[in-house]
Amino acid sequence: MYKRQFVLLFLSTIISAQHFIGNYSIVFQDSSRSNRDILTEIYYPAYSQGQSTPAVTGQFPIIIFGHGSAISTNAYQNLWQEFVPRGYIMIFPTTEGGIISNHQQFGWDLQFLVTKIQYEGNDSSSPIYNIVSNNTALIGHSMGGGATFLAGDSLCLNNNNQLKTIIGLAPAESFSNGVSSITSAASITIPSIILSGSQDGVTPPSVHHLPIYNNLASNYKTFISISGGAHCYFGNSNFVCDFLENASSSGISISRDEQQQTTFDFLNSWLDYTLKNNCEQYSVFQDSVINSNRITSVSYTHLTLPTKA
Predict the structure, then answer these.
(1) Cα-based distances in Å from 234 to 90, 102, 130, 194, 195
(2) What is the pLDDT of residues 264-285, one digit of tens each?
(3) How distant, in Å, are the alpha carbons of 85, 87, 267, 275, 280 from that of 15?
(4) What is the C-alpha separation between 278 and 9, in angstroms, rounded?
(5) N or C: which end of the chain has fewer CB within 10 A?
């Protein structure tokens, strides 16, 4: 069975990795917050590489990504290079980029973009005109991981029909303005995954990742701890994150590339299932959860199979 799933995953990867990456930047304004400017970088499947190049014909799911505190979105190039060629549009708000950041405002930025990007897809002057699928994932790392739960709580409470899954990569408990990612998790009812590095000393799993996971109200949630994994290795090297990692983490026993490949092995099948309705990929994901030798521990509540729109 494991060999069969590996073959399916390999074939899926080969078939999906076929698009070039187009990109552009745009400033959206949220009128509900005094016309707050949200500078956003967008990467999409294109017929050729480059800025505002023609988009590939089709409908592509949305991944909205929240960066870590003081981590440039450039540090997540590994993510858009992995997911966009596979047929996803990736959205990166660049707001709250300083060391001191307002987690609640960033959560509201992510929440705003879930709906706003649908309007962008209907704008005939936009490079992504007519290629935006309704299916959307919120993914975030560290501060941005915690902010995805701040963004998702009201979306779930208001029965938003775009948001299909939330994924936290070493999500940090938010604390600015009295908000809490752990508290917000109690309102999250959609399928959710948390990926954690077992040796993360920046946001220790017992203080950050696990409390968020345990408080999730979703009938379908999965916690995956990557053996020997780090906090910063979900993205590329970044001075601030690496400095904090070197000062706080110990026992990291895998490379950055190994951690990222493990992450992609789980997320590629999960996103293909939740956002592209590829039911075969659910079995691939489950097989990895049960049989992978690259994870230290895994917890899951799978009461109800996530339904496909």
Answers:
(1) 16, 22, 31, 12, 9
(2) 999 999 999 999 999 999 999 9
(3) 10, 10, 16, 17, 14
(4) 12
(5) N
* Contact between residue 166 and residue 195 where contact means Cβ atoms under 8 Å apart: no
Classify the C-alpha dihedral 248-251-257-261 as positive or negative: negative
C-alpha span between 136 and 2 (Å, rounded): 29
Neighbours of 282 (CB within 10 A): 17
Q: What percent of the chain has pLDDT over 70?
A: 94
Strand partners, 43: 23, 90
Count of residues in the chain: 309
| pLDDT at position 7 over 90 | no
For 29-47, give one letter per residue: b (16+ CB within 10 A) or e. ebeeeeeeebebbbbbbbe
What φ, ψ does residue 259 adopt, rounded to 5°? -65, -40
- How distant is the alpha carbon of residue 232 from its chain centre? 15
The residues, ordered by sequence, that sit 6+ positions from 100 with a Cβ below 8 Å of its Cβ are none
Taking phi first (over 0 means left), then psi (-120 to 50 degrees means alpha), and beta for anything else, what does residue 130 get?
A: left
The span from the CA of 212 to the CA of 261, in Å, is 24
Q: What mean pLDDT is predicted for residues 86-112?
A: 95
**Residue 18: alpha-carbon gap to chain centroid:** 21
pTM of the shown model: 0.93
What is the spatial distance between Cα 197 and Cα 179, in angstroms, rounded to a whole number? 24
**pLDDT(5) > 70:** no
The tokens describing 4, both together, are 């069969």
Determine phi and psi for 55, rounding to 5 degrees.
Answer: -75, 150
